[in-house]
Design goal:
five-stranded mixed beta sheet, Nucleotidyltransferase, domain 5, alpha/beta, 21% strand, 41% helix, 2 domains, binds adenosine monophosphate, binds magnesium ion, 12 strands, 343 residues
Length: 343
């Protein structure tokens, strides 16, 4: 396998395919300034039929169908030929097996055909690393809220340590499963936010479940569905759902912040696009004399730049690359099991 040539800059291709998104991105890394720049980014999101969730096999077919176009276009946008890429990275987990396999197979094929070094990346770590790169925060408490994750984390002794997480479904799953129940197309968070904004702000009681510093959303999902079945106003149910779920998240973030005494909070993942959530968080974070950093909305959801940037951090710190035959996937790869050598 060729080594990254000694030069002032190199290019890393990141491939993301954990769930609904097939995304590719190229990051140019300047070895002198030690800075990365996203020079191209493209994605295609699998749209499940209205009212249904991600079907792993159908999503993987979508990724396979779209991958030639996305790959070609991302290289054109970066003004590069495939052989000019210096490092290839792919999200190896956690995620849906059939979807992860598409990204891994493409990464393996490109790596072996063009003889380019290869790096697997933990998807959740990708959300955090890109969020830190784009917001320039240094040592944050992290709230990772997405389709696949609901976690409060802080970094200590080479690992992201969990200070709270969901005991059942994620916040993204709560929003998407409720949204699909009322007929929205998945992902539904944005539409629920719009409905909540149009409500009369009448609050319906919902189960507020915080256990220690963990949260549980499955009872709330059942309760919101019951409200709809019993004819309650759909806009106010969306409002009540947001108020309850986000208050739970705010409570656990504030407690973790008070415990860790961090001065920065970084919110990453697709749900960080929600304005009501950031408003609630800001109040609690101000009380703890800390600052809120939000990943820019365009890069909040799943994308290839998260993968490319994390691979660059890994490679420049320790020269990590793997053999093509070791480029596997890990569907249940927990973030707190990953050793982060560069922090
Ligand atoms: P990710 O898994 O990081 O790509 O994030 C996808 C999740 O973000 C899905 O569950 C979406 O419903 C959710 N999401 C996207 N936009 C919003 C929004 N404005 N408010 C709440 N959730 C959102
Ligand atoms: Mg994600």
């Amino acid at each position: 396998m060729k080594k990254i040539k000694k030069k002032n800059r190199f290019f890393c291709l990141g491939i993301e395919s954990t769930a609904h998104t097939f995304g590719c991105s190229v990051i140019q890394f300047d070895l002198v300034k030690k800075k990365g720049k996203i020079i191209s980014d493209l994605r295609s999101i699998y749209q499940a039929p209205d009212g249904s969730g991600i079907h792993p096999r159908e999503a993987s077919r979508h990724h396979l169908d779209k991958s030639p176009h996305i790959l070609r276009e991302v290289l054109i946008q970066a003004n590069l030929k495939a052989k000019e890429i210096d490092l290839i990275s792919y999200s190896a987990g956690p995620g849906l097996g059939p979807c992860l396999r598409v990204g891994a197979v493409i990464a393996r094929a490109l790596s072996s055909f063009y003889n380019i070094p290869l790096i697997p990346v933990n998807h959740a770590l990708g959300h955090i690393e890109l969020g830190m790169m784009l917001t320039e925060c240094q040592d944050p408490l992290v709230l990772l809220v997405s389709g696949g994750h609901t976690m409060v984390l802080a970094f200590s002794n080479k690992k992201w340590r969990v200070f709270g997480e969901t005991q059942d479904i994620t916040i993204g799953q709560l929003l998407d499963q409720f949204g699909r129940y009322i007929g929205f197309a998945s992902p539904c968070g944005n539409k629920i936010e719009q409905y909540a904004n149009q409500s009369t702000k009448k609050y319906y009681n919902l189960p507020y479940i915080v256990k220690g510093n963990d949260v549980s959303f499955s009872g709330m999902l059942t309760a919101t569905k019951k409200l709809i079945d019993n004819g309650y106003d759909i806009f106010n149910v969306c409002f009540s759902l947001q108020e309850t779920a986000f208050a739970m998240l705010t409570e656990v973030v504030e407690r973790a912040l008070s415990f860790t005494e961090k001065k920065e909070v970084l919110i990453v993942g697709g749900v960080s696009a929600n304005k009501r959530l950031s408003t609630m968080l800001k109040i609690a974070i101000k009380r703890q004399k800390a600052t809120l950093y939000s990943c820019p909305i365009y890069y909040a959801g799943d994308n290839g730049a998260q993968i490319a940037w994390t691979a660059i951090c890994d490679n420049i710190s320790s020269g990590t690359t793997i053999k093509v035959q070791d480029a596997l996937i890990k569907q249940s790869w927990r973030l707190d099991k990953v050793e982060v050598k560069w922090r």
